[in-house]
Amino acid sequence: MDAKPDASPAPAGDDDLPAREAAYESFIWSNLRRNYLGNYLHGMLGMTGFRLVNAPTFLPAYLFAISGSNAIVGLGLALQQVGGVISPIFGATKIEHRKRVMPAAMWMGGLARMAILGIALAGWFLPNEPVSLSFLGEWLVRPRVAAILGFMLMFGIFMGAQRVVFSLLMAKVIPISRRGRLQAWRNATGGLIAAVLAYFAGRYFIDANLFGNGYSTTFVFAFVLTSLGLWALQLLLKEPEPPTTRAQARFRDRLRDFPTLLRQDRSYGFFVLMQMLATSARIATPFYIIFVGSIIGLDGKTLGLLSLAFLGADTVSNLVWGYLGDKTGFRLVLLLSLVTWIAATVLLMSVHDIAAMFVAFCGLGAAQSGYMMAAQTMILEFGDRDELPMRIAVSATAESITATAGPLIGGVVAELAGYHVVFGVSLGFLAVALLLLIVAVKEPRTARRQTF
């Protein structure tokens, strides 16, 4: 039974389930070229912009420049992660019963992009001089800092929700054997654009204070690029209706299902624990660039160079990670990325010249791209299709819980004990995560092949 390229399989009774499964599979392959291109453009342009916001260079350096506080830097990153704690679960409960999820994707993705625009506009239009808020007991608040912190919270909320939706969309339209190379090429080309833009942003936007605020100019570029990616996905993607979906459930009822999801597959349960440990290691991430500034100073040229190193390595390594994952499964990619992360952190702590720091940031960029690709792809391969939205949500929430406290604690520890202590704690988490991955997490592709 073949489906027409422009129509998804129509639902029928349970006795017709094999035919509907075949029609669903036929629809995926019939529309693969169009959906592949849509996902590629969305990922390339979206990842370009989001990398400029999420890279451990521009936003931490900007927050530190306007606040002068490590604690504020940590608070901003923590608020961003707080937003991602509950929103993935809400996102999953809103879409897991739906035949089509693209409308929800547009809303969630659009609001995440509006948060980036808000960060940029705050830099242009809000003052950074402290003002007194008498109703808060004469607290002094910097309006620009407060607004950016609020937009970072908003960004985290909708990024957490869109992570579930867009992961589900990719699982619905891209066969498992093609996901690695898709992510490799879209991340590589997007990373190349981001690396070049990051270098020029450092040298010509930030140093020149372009349009009155070089950081705001950089974030506007990020907003435009991510918005173009979302528009391309909406224009090109043809979404099939799955043969089966879960019945709609209440939020609190789905929360009670968490233990069952983790018990059903012990390897998946250990995978979630490994994610939490690896995410806890991000306690050091916002302080990499501030540490460099404390050692050799930080101007626009250095910021652009190290951003180029981080994003350039992210770009090149994506091609390796993607094809390796398609060939062997993504557990090996995850293992190698954790080892690279550890080595790069040790190098950054130990050798304090610009060449070594460039190499360290290359390693950190390669490690981040490998970890993100492997973690986000492996989660699509555990368990059955109908539980996929909630599995994505569980993983996203677990990561966000540990990522919330990490930067905030890291900021306080950096103020009290120094950056080396923060980096040492990060290495401890990474070492335990690596050990757990080796001894307790099986490759889901070989343990149980699952095609969506």
Overview of the structural elements:
- The protein has 452 residues and is mainly α.
- Helices cover 77% and strands 1% of the residues.
- Strands 1-2 form a two-stranded antiparallel ribbon.
- Helix 7 packs antiparallel against helix 13 (300-328).
- The longest helix has 31 residues, at 143-173.
- It is globular, with a radius of gyration of 22 Å.
- Residues 1-13 have low confidence and may be disordered.
Quickly describe the structure:
By secondary structure, the protein is mainly α. It has helices at residues 17-30, 32-54, 58-67, 70-95, 102-125, 143-173, 179-206, 214-236, 251-256, 258-264, 266-280, 288-296, 300-328, 330-350, 354-378, 388-417, 419-440, 444-447; strands at 131-133, 139-141.
- How many beta strands in the DSSP annotation? 2
Strand order of the largest sheet: 1-2
Principal-axes geometry comes out as: globular
Secondary-structure element order, N to C: HHHHHEEHHHHHHHHHHHHH
Report low-confidence residues grouped into runs of 5 or more.
1-13
Helix coverage percent:
over 70%
Q: Strand fraction band?
A: under 5%
What structural class results from the helix and strand content? mainly alpha
Biggest pleated sheet: 2 strands, antiparallel
